[in-house]
Amino acid sequence: MSTEGIIERLQELGMSGYEAKAYIALVAAGEPLNGYEVAKRSGVPRSTVYETLGKLTATGVTYEVRTPEDTVSYLPLPPKSLLDRLSRHYESTLGSLRESLPGIAAPSRLHLIHNLTGREALLERASDVIVSAQRDLFLSVWPEEVDPLDELVRDAQDQGVSVTVMSFGEDTKPVPHTYIHRLSPPAVVLENLGCRLFVAVGDRQECVIGGFLNGDAWGIYSDNPAVVMVAVEYVRHDIAIQLMAANFPEQDVLSFWNNDPDLTRLRSDHGFAATALRAGRTGASGGGANSGAPVRKRAPGRQGTRRR
Fold it and tell me: DSSP states of 174-205 as a string?
C-alpha cells in the first residue's frame, strides 16, 4: 500500500490528515525528530506542526523526548501497539453499540427494496447479508463473485450457519453443501440470462439479487418477505434440477433439456434477467445504490419515492 493509502486508512480511523502524515514521518525516521524535522519530512506546515504533535501526544500516539540540550523531540507509538490500541477501542465501542443501538430501534413498518449499482455496491451489500446470517444462507454465485466473498462465507459456515451454494462453475474451495450447475455449460447460462445472475439470502429475511457483466453490475437489496421467498425458491429449485439430472441417464437428460419444446419456449427470452435488472436501476425514482431508501411505486401524476 502506498503512503497515501496508509494516510487515508489512518484518517478513516480518526486521525486528521496532518496527524497521519506526522505519525508516518516519525515511524519512518526510526529516531526522535523535533518539530522542524517532522514538518520537513511530512509536509505538515511548520505553522501547525507543533499543534499537530501536541494532539498526537495528548492521545498517546507520540511521546515527547527531552534531549541533553533540553530541546523537545518526538517518538511514535510503535505501529503494532497503535493498531492493537485502535482495535481494542473500536471493539469496545462496537460492543457498546451492539447492546444499546438495537434497543432504540422502532419495529419496521416498511419492507425495503432499494437499488444497487456497481460491482462494489452489490458485493458490499451481499457481505452485509452474509455476515448477518445466523441460521441459514443461500447463495447462487459464479466464480468471479465467489472469491471476494469466500472468507465471509467460510466464517458463516464455521459459526454454525447452514450454507447452501449453487455454483455456476467449478468452486475450488467449496463448502459442504455446494452444488455445481452441470446441466448447461456456464457460457450457455450466461447467454440465456445476459449476465452472471447473483443471489444471496440470509436467514430467509433479507436478500441481494443482482447481475454482473463486463465490470458492470446492477441489482437490489430487499427484506420484503415475498421477494426473499422467491429468491430462496430460485436457489432451491436450481439445485433440485441439478440433483434430479445427476440421478438419471445423462443422454436422456440432455436430450430432454435441449429438445423439449416447452423448455425451449421458456428459455426463448435470452437476456431477460440482465434487462430486468438494468431496468430496475434506470427506472427507479428513489432508493439508489447508496441511499438505502425504501421504495414505493408512483401513482400517476404524483411525486415521491417508491416503496413496497
Answer: --TTEEE--SS-HHHHHHHHSSEEEEEEETTT
What CATH number did the domain enclosing 129 receive? Answer: 3.30.870.10
Residues 219 and 153 in one domain: yes
Task: Clarify whether residues 14 and 119 are in a common domain.
Answer: no
> Three cell numbers at 133?
446470517
CA–CA dist 136, 125 (Å, integer): 17
The set of cell numbers assigned to 19 is 496527524
Pairing of strands 162-167, 216-222: unpaired
Cα separation, 254 vs 59, whole angstroms: 68
The string of pLDDT tens digits covering residues 66-102 is: 877 778 999 999 999 999 988 988 888 888 888 888 8
User: What does each C-alpha distance from 167 to 45, 136, 141, 159, 162 come to in angstroms?
Assistant: 55, 17, 5, 22, 16
Nine cell digits for residue 35: 518539530
Domain assignment of residue 46, given as a range: 3-80
Q: What confidence tens digit (pLDDT) does each residue in 176-207 have? A: 899 988 877 888 888 888 889 999 999 999 99
- Cβ contacts of residue 186 below 8 Å, gap of 6+? 142, 168, 169
For residues 251 and 259, what is the distance between their CA atoms, to the nearest angstrom? 12
